[in-house]
Each structure stands twice: as structure tokens, then as C-alpha cells.
Specification:
disordered C terminus
Length: 306
């Protein structure tokens, strides 16, 4: 019986490898970027389609950890699970820095919009208001607004500079603000100050909503952290302190059971990620459509520019 189990270990290794590839694909699919962005990246090499936080160092450490886990346990599936966990769990369970950065940039956008409104209320022209406010820009948009001011001072037309600024910020709410500014610059529209005030209020409402959602997601992440920590701690404790208890996993059937458990964990993490993700609205302006402003943006900025 032991001989039969040993002879089937290569089969278990092959199945474990295939399972690991599928596991990584499932988790990556749960956290992949929107389809529109995926289409823009379709021409890139496969290595460039991996998540940005999968650095060479992280992949190397994950592979080494997987090899060590496989060597210590003699379980091929454990090696694959360890590698997949090292690649995906830090991003799923760690602090959501991307959401925090997005919220900070939205607050900065609202602040800059209010600064523009107040500067325009002092009878300054739009181009002058952009230059003045860019010099005292909020920290989260300091680089982008600095580039905008430098572009305008270099003689670039204000509408073109604003479109480039929208592409650099890459945010749907920034597109709405920039669309109003572009229309004002091209059509000499009035009532811009009042519209900017309404836009700033709208952005702040979006910020408040995202903060409430982020607070709810934080509680989910905390629960997942506790579950994962307890589970991994128990598994490590059994391997170190009571290895005979895990002898059933030395068989092919045991490896299959372990693979099924890993799949269930992957599905649970993917589901938690999906329910906590906020899909951003489609951008009104972008590199693919640099001339979108007028018609599409008029609905978003309705009633403000006349």
C-alpha cells in the first residue's frame, strides 16, 4: 500500500501543479482590473498583465517559500498552496492602500475645485486661476497640477493642457471637473463658479460614501485576517507538534482533499474581494477619446454652464 502511494506521488505532483495554476487564475480573476482597461492592455506581453504588486522579488520569495513548504511536508499541493498564498494573501488581507489613495485624491480634487471657484469669484480669468491654484495645490495632486501649470506656462492651449491633466489623473470625477473647465475655456461660458461649487460638493459626497464603504470593508478584512491567522496557526502547529495526526494527507486521496480545501479558501477570498470592490464609473475623457468633452460632459454638468 505504501508502495502504491509512493508510485502515485508524481501524479499527485502534476495534479497539484495544475491545481495551483487554476488557483492563481481564480484569485487573479477576482482582483483583475475592469474589462475596458484589460482591452487596452491586450497587446502587452503576458508578464506585463500580472498584478503590479507581483514584483520579481515577491514572486521569488513566494516560490522559495513554496519549495520549502513542499520539502518540509512532502506534499506537492502544500507547495502550490503556499506559493499562491504568498502571492495573493498580502494584497487581499493587508491594508487597502489603493482605496485610501483614491479617497485622498478625491478629497484633493474637491479642495482644488473649491480653490478654483473662490479664485474665479475674485474676477480672475480661468487660465490665471488654474496657474494660481496649481502653485498651492493639495499634496495628493501636487505633481499632476504642477505638470498642468508647467504646460500652460510653456504656451500650450489651456483646453489641451486640461485634457492631458485629466489623462494623468485618470479619475472619472476629475473628468467631470475638467470637462466643465474645457467647455468654459472653449466657449467663454458664464456661471462657472457656481458650477464648480456644485461639483466640489458632489465630490465630497462621493468621498463620504467611499469612506463609509471602506469602513465596512475594513471590518470584513479584519474577520478574514482572524480566520486566516487561526487556520494557518493551527496547520503549522499540527505540522510541528503533532505530525502523525496529518499522516492521512501523505496519500494521493489526502492530497486531493487538501487541494479541495485550498479551492474552497480561494473561492471564499475571491467572493469577499468581489463584494468589497467598488466599480468606478466609465471615464468621460481619455486618451482614446481626447475630444469627448462637450456632448457627453454636458449631461454630467447639466444646468451649470450657460
Amino acid at each position: 500500500m505504501a508502495l502504491m502511494g509512493g508510485s502515485l506521488m508524481p501524479v499527485a505532483a502534476i495534479l497539484g501543479t495544475a491545481f495551483g495554476v487554476g488557483l492563481v487564475a481564480i484569485v487573479y480573476g477576482a482582483v483583475r482590473r475592469p474589462a475596458a482597461e484589460e482591452r487596452t492592455r491586450s497587446g502587452r506581453r503576458p508578464a506585463e498583465r500580472l498584478p503590479a504588486n507581483w514584483t520579481t522579488r515577491r514572486v521569488t520569495v513566494s516560490l522559495v517559500a513554496g519549495v520549502v513548504a513542499g520539502a518540509l511536508t512532502a506534499w506537492p499541493v502544500a507547495a502550490v498552496l503556499t506559493t499562491a498564498a504568498m502571492l495573493t494573501l498580502p494584497g487581499l488581507l493587508g491594508p487597502d492602500r489603493q482605496a485610501a489613495r483614491r479617497t485622498e485624491r478625491m478629497e484633493a480634487l474637491a479642495t482644488w475645485t473649491e480653490m478654483l471657484r473662490d479664485t474665479l469669484s475674485a474676477a480672475a480669468g480661468l487660465e490665471q486661476a488654474v496657474l494660481v491654484t496649481a502653485d498651492i495645490a493639495p499634496a495628493a495632486l501636487e505633481r499632476e497640477l504642477g505638470d498642468l501649470a508647467a504646460s500652460v506656462r510653456a504656451g500650450r492651449p489651456l483646453p489641451a493642457a486640461l485634457r492631458a491633466f485629466a489623462d494623468e489623473v485618470n479619475d472619472p470625477l476629475a473628468d467631470v471637473v475638467v470637462a466643465a473647465l474645457v467647455m468654459a475655456a472653449e466657449q467663454q461660458a458664464s456661471q462657472l463658479s457656481a458650477l464648480l461649487g456644485e461639483l466640489a460638493d458632489s465630490v465630497r459626497e462621493q468621498v463620504a460614501m467611499r469612506q463609509r464603504v471602506d469602513a465596512g470593508r475594513a471590518s470584513i478584512r479584519t474577520g478574514v485576517r482572524v480566520t486566516v491567522t487561526v487556520t494557518l496557526g493551527m496547520a503549522v502547529g499540527l505540522v510541528v507538534l503533532n505530525r502523525p495526526y496529518l499522516d492521512p494527507f501523505d496519500t494521493v486521496a489526502g492530497q486531493v482533499v487538501l487541494a479541495v480545501v485550498g479551492v474552497l479558501f480561494a473561492i471564499a477570498f475571491a467572493w469577499l474581494t468581489a463584494i468589497g470592490r467598488i466599480d468606478d464609473p466609465v471615464r468621460l475623457m481619455g486618451a482614446a477619446n481626447p475630444d469627448v468633452p462637450a456632448a457627453a460632459d454636458a449631461g454630467a454638468a447639466s444646468g451649470g454652464i450657460r
